[in-house]
Amino acid sequence: MYFETIQQMKKMLGQLDKWLDAAAAFAQKKSFDPNVFVGLRLAPDQFPFARQVQSTCDTVKLAAARLAGKAPPAHPDTEQTLDELHARVRSVIAYLDGFTAKDFEGAATRVITQPRWEGKVMTGADYFMEHAVPNFFFHVTHAYAILRHNGVEVGKRDYLGALSLRAP
Amino acid sequence: MYFETIQQMKKMLGQLDKWLDAAAAFAQKKSFDPNVFVGLRLAPDQFPFARQVQSTCDTVKLAAARLAGKAPPAHPDTEQTLDELHARVRSVIAYLDGFTAKDFEGAATRVITQPRWEGKVMTGADYFMEHAVPNFFFHVTHAYAILRHNGVEVGKRDYLGALSLRAP
User: Fold this and answer.
1) CA A39, B156, B1, B51 torsion: positive or negative?
2) Which pLDDT band holds residue B71 (cuts at 50, 70, 90)?
3) What is the torsional sign of CA B11, B140, B63, B124?
C-alpha cells in the first residue's frame, strides 16, 4: 500500500501542476500578476500558497525517501513564481517516478524520526498513516483552497483527476 | 490497509469533533452565535461548513459500507447547528467502531458503483485510493480551513491529533 498510496500522491501532484496553470490563466484573464498567488493565504498566521505547495512536495518526497531508506534530493524553498513552483512539483514527480513497489518492502517496520520529534521515533507504518498521508492531503487541499477562495476556476474534478471507471 | 486507513479516518473524525468545540469557544469569546459557522464557506460557489462536515462523514461511512458489502445507515443532511454536527460526527464514529479488519477481506476486488458514475464501476481498490481517500481529506481539510480562515484557534496539532511517538 505504500507504493500505491505514493502513486496516488504523485497523481495529485500532477493535478496540482494543472491548478498552477488555472491560476495563471485566471490572472491573465483578470490582468494581474500571476505571481501574486505565491503569497496568498487563508489566514494571516497560516502558510501562504508557495509554502503549501512546497510542503505538499516535501511531504511525499520525504515519505518515499524515508520509507525506502534513501536520501531525498534537497529543495531549498526559494520559489517565488508560479513557474518556479511548476518546476518544484515536476521535479518531485520525476523523483517519485524512480520508485518501485520493491523499494517499500520492510517499510512498515522501519524506524523513522525527524528533528521536530526531539529524539522520539515512529514505525514506518505509523509515520505513514498518522503523519505523511494526512499532512500531504492537508497541504495539497490548502493549495487548492487558496486558489479556489481567490476565484481560480478549479473544481472537484480538477482535484481528483481522472478516475479508473470501467464498464460493469 | 482498508481497515487501517478507515481507523485513521475515524481518528480524524474525532479531531473534527474537537474543532467544533473550538469553533463554539471562539464564538462565545467573541459573543456571536456559534451556528453562524454552519453557513460559512471559502467561496460563494463552494459547499458551506455544514456540508463539508456532512461530506466528510459520508465519504468514510460509504467507503466502509461499500468495501465491506454492508448497507450504510441513512443521514438526511438536516444539521443546522454545531450541536447537530457533533451528533452527526459521533454517530459515524460509532458506526465505524462496528468494523473489524475481517470485514474488508476481498474489498480490493469488490465492484463499486454510485449513481453519479452513470453505469460505470470501479474496483474497490481503485475506488478507495482514487476517490474515497482524497475526497475524505478534501472535505475534512476544507472544514478545518473554513474555521481557520474565520479565526478559530486550531492548528496543525489539532488536525493531526496524537502521534504514536515512542522511545528509540
Assistant:
1) negative
2) very high
3) negative
Non-local (6+) Cβ contacts of A76 within 8 A are: none
Angle, helix B2-30 to helix B82-97, in steps of 10 degrees: 160
Closest by Cα among B97, B10, B29, B96 to A130: B10
Candidates B41, B123, B166: best to mutate against A (most CBs of A within 10 A) is B166
- The span from the CA of A106 to the CA of A49, in Å, is 35
**pLDDT at A162 (0 to 100):** 97
| Cα–Cα distance, B30 to B49 (Å, whole number) | 19
Instruction: Compute CA B23 distance to the chain's CA centroid, rounded to the nearest angstrom.
Output: 17
Q: In the structure grid, which three cell numbers stand for residue B139, read together?
A: 472535505
DSSP-derived letter for residue A48 is -
Contacts of B80 (CB under 8 A, 6+ apart): B35, B38, B50
Query: Is the distance from CB of B104 to CB of B115 less than 8 angstroms?
Result: no
B4, B137, B165: residue with CB nearest A141 = B137
To which residue does cell 469553533 refer? B23
B134/A42 CB distance under 8 A: no
Alpha carbons within 13 angstroms on the beta-carbon side of residue B115 total 0
Cβ atoms of A111 and A123 closer than 8 Å: yes
C-alpha distance from residue A142 to each of A57, B41, B42, B50 (Å): 13, 14, 11, 18
| Rounded average pLDDT over B99-127 | 96
Question: Which residue of chain A comes nearest to B163, CA vs CA?
Answer: A130
Mean pLDDT of successive 10-residue segments in chain A (168 residues)?
A: 97 98 98 98 98 98 98 97 98 98 97 93 98 98 98 97 96
Which three three-digit cell numbers place residue A31?
490582468
